[in-house]
Amino acid sequence: QVRFVESGGGLVQPGGSLRLSCAASGRFFEIVTMGWYRQAPGKQRESVARITSGGTTNYADSVKGRFTISRDNAKNAVYLQMNSLKPEDTAVYYCNADFRASWAVSKPEAAWGQGTQVTVSS
Q1: What's the CA gap between 37 and 61, in Å, rounded?
Q2: How many other CB atoms sit within 10 Å of the CB of residue 21?
Q3: Each residue's pLDDT tens digit in the chain (122 positions)?
């Protein structure tokens, strides 16, 4: 029901910047929350940043002050500006959306993008 187009990953040196983009499309009533998660090799997937349709944001402690999440509700798009990148930020980053399939459904369900690789290395 929800499809994503993700872009912006790649290889960057420590201290560098990257901007991830994700656009959602498909058949749904509304997207409640959008966000970014990441999964490093051998580790569990973790939440990086999330943003509601009203603009309320939430960040993992490890990225506060370095990453900024933003959203374009008209485009069903979410962005993640990543500055001062560290080697420990290396992971596959996944776009996430909690959406309502129809007006009659009150509980959102989750949808995931295919992931984009971010590698921070000199």
Answers
A1: 13
A2: 17
A3: 899 999 999 999 999 999 999 999 999 999 999 999 999 999 999 999 999 999 999 999 999 999 999 999 999 999 999 999 999 999 999 999 999 999 998 899 999 999 999 999 99
The closest alpha carbon to 66, from 47, 83, 91, 87, belongs to: 83
C-alpha span between 79 and 77 (Å, rounded): 7
- And the tokens for 100? 């309502």
Q: What share of the chain is helix, strand, coil (3-state, %, to 5)?
A: 5, 55, 35
Burial label for 108, CB within 10 Å (0-12, 13-18, 19+), is middle
Decide: 31 and 22 in contact? Cβ < 8 Å: no
Pick the closest to residue 1 from 28, 32, 19, 36 (CA basis).
28
Quick one: how many helices (H) and strands (E) in the chain? 0, 11
